[in-house]
Amino acid sequence: KISAVALIKMAMHARSGGDIEVMGNLQGHVIGDTFYIMDSYNLPTEASETRVSSTDETTEYMVAH
Description:
Elements: H1 4-16, E1 24-31, E2 34-42, E3 46-47, E4 52-53, H2 56-64
Antiparallel strand pairs: 1-2, 3-4
């Protein structure tokens, strides 16, 4: 199950990428057999048509969240 806030943030991030690949993380919790996605955030990465390159900055950004 995905919250409306997380869904809107994911859609906006995906559209902002245009023709390039984007990357982000989902935040939530599990109850029983159900995943509850409460939030999402984009990651500062460099992307091409074939891959996404994570940097030290990306890792530090994820830890901060």
